[in-house]
Amino acid sequence: PVPGVRLDCRGYMPHHEMPAVYQAADIFVYPTWPVPGWLEQWGLSVVEAMACGLPVITTDVGAFKEIHPPEMRENWTIAARDWVGLSHKLAELIEHPTLRRVLGARNREWVLSEFSGEKTAAQYRAAFGGQSV
Questions:
Q1: Phi first, then psi: what are they for 10, rounded to 5°?
Q2: Whole-angstrom Cα distance, residue 124 to residue 130?
Q3: In whole angstroms, what is the distance from residue 109 CA to residue 124 CA?
Q4: Angle at Cα 98 formed by Cα 93 and Cα 115, nearest 5°?
Q5: CA–CA separation, 121 vs 127, rounded Å?
């Protein structure tokens, strides 16, 4: 336990409730890891949290590293199952509210520029033989 810190591990949440959940949070952590027969590739919830201005910590599984802005990929992506590394990153964000705000603002800016509906639609069209991006 850390004084003044509340950890809230959520199970299933209906999608329509997620904006309020993100807005109530200070940090978003997505510590996925590979298991036999399954490797998570990409998580929409990570992009949604970033769009809401949260600092995000992910693992290096699938494409999660590429979701982060380029200058943040090494620092905010930890190895799968590196619980010590995760605890250090959490401590850094807990202890530095200004860092949380700066990272969250950069995440939001990145997601709005790189994952907009228009850009995603253009990428789909290009991938499936439509207009080029």
A1: -100, 145
A2: 8
A3: 22
A4: 75
A5: 10
Task: State how far the Cα of 23 lies from the Cα of 17, in Å rounded to an integer.
Answer: 10
The model's pTM: 0.83
The pLDDT profile of the chain, 133 residues, written as one tens digit per residue, is: 566 777 777 788 899 999 899 999 999 999 888 888 777 777 788 999 999 999 999 999 888 888 999 999 889 999 999 999 999 999 999 999 999 999 999 999 999 999 888 888 888 888 898 655 5
Q: Do 19 and 53 contact (CB within 8 A), yes or no?
A: no
Q: Which residues, listed in sequence order, are joined to residue 59 by a DSSP beta bridge?
A: 78
8 Å CB contact between 115 and 47 = yes
Q: Which distant-in-sequence residues (6+ apart) come within 8 Å of 99 by Cβ?
A: 55, 92, 93
Q: Identify which of 95, 13, 87, 37 has the alpha carbon closest to the alpha carbon of residue 57.
A: 87
